[in-house]
Amino acid sequence: MPYVEGQTIHDADSHIMEMPESVHPYVDPKFRAAFIDKTRSKDGLLERFAKAAALHEDPEFMAGAAANIMLRKNHEALGAFRSSDRGAALDQLGFASQLVFTTACLSNFGLEQRGEVELALEGARAHNRMMTEFCSVDRRLLATGYVPLIDRQRAPEIAREALALGAKALMVPSRHPPGFSPSHRELDPLWALAQEAGVPILFHVGGEEKMHRDYLENGLPFVKDFHGGDENFTSLTFMAIPLSVWQTLSALVIDGVFDRFPRLKFGAIELGASWLPSLMKFLDSGCAAFGKEERLLKLSGTPSEILRRQLRVTPYPHEDVAWIMANSGEEMVLFSSDFPHVEGGRNPLKRFNDSLAGASEAAKRAFYRDNFIDLMGAGLAPELHDVQVRAAA
Questions:
Q1: Could you please report the per-residue DSSP string of 310-375?
Q2: CA-CA 20 to 30 A from 181: which of 12, 52, 149, 363?
Q3: What is the pLDDT of residues 24-73, one digit of tens each?
Q4: pLDDT of residue 214
Q5: pLDDT, tens digit (0-9, with 9 covering 90-100), for 151-208
Q6: pLDDT class of 393 with cuts at 50, 70, 90
């Protein structure tokens, strides 16, 4: 029995769980040695992931995959790293489609921040080859391509290549590129390309500026994350997640990018959403205070109206979705499972349903279906809009 039945739900956030070095074969041979040298896996990862991979060769373990579709997490989940299993996983999940993101490459290995421009660009291209090949097994799997903004002239070239490979959305970092704003006019060809193709620009957790480590030096014992290490988030470092996208969205609105490309949709994925009403209100307030600035006089509406027109976000399961909707807009929020990450929980559908208990049927339909279709545009084939239509095709 699928996790979702009798309802069309699109999943705006899922992942593959690459094995260490999975991306290496996709790197241009001219850059491969240097890329491997700069992105070496941490000690112990190969052995740990080899054990997880061995489970998927065990018939007894695989016999329980369907029954445990929402219980097994990370590398133990069905279709986590074997593309041949991902369609079966989606059948068991019951989602009409899934946006699929990387796990290991979300920060592009820090290459951009370290000034490794060529390797950053080649890493992105390798990521895009890997993601589109993985998702090619099932058209319900919507591959995301990554576009570094560090080279303004080559960003459109990388985006064009990703779309030609089969990417259905383009991910960019939510932090600013080194040395300039994401609203720089020389990036306009990138936004124009995405608008013309009818695909969204996405921000995803992992592409943000992390909380400065000085905040962790508090004279108390070090706090590990829920994976048992320091690679992810704790209650404190979690607080910095929306800061970069807050600033980037503000720059894109105030500097006119949204208005120059009014048909281009943006999505903030796995970045939470409780910050959204505050951003909209704060932007409106700030623009009212500095209303005589020439760039503000040219805006097509208030910043909140512009964001409502073009931005969509995914709340976490623990957030109050009804409150976010009421204070931002029913058209702005999307369902996501985070499959197969442990952070998504074992029953996100129940948590979201509980949060939306008092919402209208139209609001629920918008959350689970309509807003995703609006975000994806040409990236989602019309025959995939509804589960019933897909099954009959």
A1: HEEE---TTS-HHHHHHHT-GGGB-----BT-GGG-S-HHHHHHHHTTTS-HHHHHIIIIIHHHHH
A2: 12
A3: 999 999 999 999 999 987 656 667 777 888 999 999 999 999 999 999 99
A4: 87
A5: 999 999 999 999 999 999 999 999 999 999 999 999 999 999 999 999 999 999 999 8
A6: very low
Query: Do 325 and 363 touch, CB atoms closer than 8 A?
Result: yes
* Tens digits of residue pLDDT in 228-243: 445 567 888 888 999 9
Query: Rounded to whole angstroms, how far apart are CA atoms 172 and 266?
Result: 10
Q: Which pairing describes strands 311-313 and 141-146: parallel, antiparallel, or unpaired?
A: unpaired
Cβ(161)–Cβ(121) under 8 Å? Answer: no
User: What DSSP string describes 280-304?
Assistant: HHHHHHHHHHTTTSHHHHT-SS-HH
Q: Which has the closest alpha carbon to 12: 206, 161, 171?
A: 171
Contact by Cβ (8 Å): 375, 386: no
Q: Which domains does the chain have, with CATH numbers?
A: 10-392 (3.20.20.140)
Measured in whole angstroms, how far is the alpha carbon of residue 227 from the centre of its chain?
20
Report d(CA 289, CA 308) in Å as an integer: 21
Residues 6+ apart with CB under 8 A from 275: 242, 246
Show the beta-strand stretches assigned E in 26-140. Answer: 97-101
What are 333-365's pLDDT values in tens digits? Answer: 999 999 999 999 999 999 999 999 999 999 999
CA distances from 69 to 72, 75, 87, 100, 137 (A): 6, 12, 12, 17, 19
State residue 146 phi and psi, 5-degree precision: -105, 135
What distance separates the 2 farthest-apart alpha carbons in the chain?
69
Question: What is the b/e burial string over 90-99, where b = at least 16 CB atoms within 10 angstroms of the residue's CB?
Answer: bbbbbbbbbb
CA distance 147 to 128: 9
Q: Which residues contact 230 (CB under 8 A, 6 or more apart)?
A: 222, 224
Q: How many CB atoms lie within 10 A of CB 291?
A: 10
91: its two tokens: 């059948």
Chain centre distance of CA 194: 16
Residue of 190, 173, 195, 199 lying closest to 271 (CA atoms): 173
pLDDT, the chain, mean? 94
